[in-house]
Amino acid sequence: MTITNIKVRKIIPEGRLKGIISVTFDDAFAVHDIKVVQGDDRLFVAMPSRRDDSGAFRDIVHPISAEVREKIEGEILSAYYRALSEVAPS
Q1: How would you label 45-76 residue by residue, b for 16+ Cβ within 10 Å and e otherwise?
Q2: What does the pLDDT look like over 16-66, one tens digit per residue?
Q3: Nearest CA to 46 among 34, 55, 58?
Q4: Is 77 strand, coil or helix?
Q5: What are the CB-based long-range contacts (under 8 Å, 24+) for 41-46?
Q6: What is the pLDDT of residue 1?
Q7: Domain tally for the chain?
Q8: 45: containing domain
């Protein structure tokens, strides 16, 4: 499985939610509404989720292994930082 496209759909300067991302895998499968979130110590990637009947949020899609999660998160954060530098005032 290869990431073939990452689109930074929105950059949000205020608050903990910093960006909304879409990722395409193998030019065949897209995942939308991936969030870039400012945590206490660092930025992290949150997969699309929804609230269940008990009020807890559950990921709709997610990587199974830590290795794949790290790879996807690294590529998303790299794309986010590139997009952020393109909109930053010179």
Answers
A1: bbbeeeeeeeeeeeeeeebeeeeeeeebbeeb
A2: 999 999 999 999 999 999 999 999 999 999 999 999 999 999 999 999 999
A3: 34
A4: helix
A5: 43/18, 43/77, 43/80, 44/73, 45/21, 45/72, 45/73, 45/76, 45/77
A6: 85
A7: 1
A8: 3-87
Here the tokens at position 75 are 């590529």
Is the Cα torsion angle 47, 48, 53, 54 positive or negative in sign? positive
CATH number at residue 28: 3.30.1120.40
- Which DSSP symbol is given to 27? T
Amino acid sitting at position 89 = P
DSSP state of 64: S
Token pair in block for residue 59: 């990921």
